[in-house]
Amino acid sequence: MPKPSIRLAIMEDFIGSHPLLFSAMALAVSAGIELLQAWPEFMPLGHEIGEVARNLGYGIAAACVFNWIIVEIPAKREARRILDSYWWNLNEMALSGAMLLAQYRQMAPKGEYNTQTETGMKDFLKTIPLIPSQTSMQGTTVKSGPELWVLSDPFAHTTLIEYVEGQGAVISPFLHRLDPGVADCAIELMHFRQRMNGLRPVFRPPGSLEQEFLHIWEFVRHSRRLRQALLTHYPEHELRVPTILPLSPDQPVHQIVDADL
Predict the structure, then answer these.
(1) Which helix (H) or strand (E) segment is 148 a member of?
(2) Helix/strand/coil for 152
(3) pLDDT (tens digit, 9 = 90+) per residue, 153-196?
(4) What is residue 43's DSSP assignment?
(5) What separation, in Å, do the N-terminal and C-terminal C-alpha atoms of the chain show?
């Protein structure tokens, strides 16, 4: 048997999630008592108890309807306004994983890669060399004896992570107004760097991104979860796939492929 506090929490959650249903139930109880009062009283104080229950039912129904009109409707209108105003920020966060994969595909050998599964993503990252960091230092390589090391960062000196954190900072004051499924996914993506110990660039011997696989896979999964949450809870809004602009004029414009979404 659940503890009383747990049962109370379950009841509060039900009432909070279904106020109109609870109001209809209270109204039905009151209407039933109205009908029963046409019969002779068959227990002591039955009429008096019925009066209290009936009035309580009417009061609960009126309170729920009042809350719906005065609180719920304005809150939903405000949530729609916020969603319209900050949809692009959510759009960018939801597609950040695909943007990262588009950057990798630009450096990968030509071919078909399955980035939707963990195994496929791992095989894909094995084909990509370490990404030199864009940190302005005295060179981006060091030698330790005969071995050459590269200052490597799978997220291009975390610029993409910082971009996602910036988009999240813009919408964070309004997340409580959005659907909890969307808000939770956005928060997970915003706090990705803190969970992964900062994701600072490190010196590594030249090779592939295989060592960084878990960080990359986790980041892409979080962005995909946010995208799916937006499609599920706000199907009336369109998620637009951005064009990735080149870093320099001599580089080609690279598009996000549907297989990475």
Answers:
(1) strand 147-152
(2) strand
(3) 887 656 888 889 999 999 999 998 899 999 999 999 998 888 77
(4) S
(5) 44
**Measured between alpha carbons, how far is 163 from 87 in angstroms, rounded to an integer?**
16
Are residues 149 and 142 in contact, defined by beta-carbon separation less than 8 angstroms? yes
Contact 234, 90 (CB under 8 A): no
3-state secondary structure of 110: coil
Q: Kindly report the CA angle at 153 between 131 and 182, in degrees rounded to 5?
A: 115
How far is the C-alpha of 69 from the C-alpha of 75, rounded, in Å? 10
Answer yes or no: pTM beyond 0.90.
no
Continuous H helices in the chain: 4-17, 19-36, 46-67, 73-94, 96-107, 118-126, 159-171, 180-190, 192-195, 213-233
Q: Rounded to whole angstroms, how far apart are CA atoms 230 and 194? A: 24
Q: Identify the three-state secondary structure at position 204.
A: strand
Q: How far apart are CA 261 and CA 254, in angstroms?
A: 15
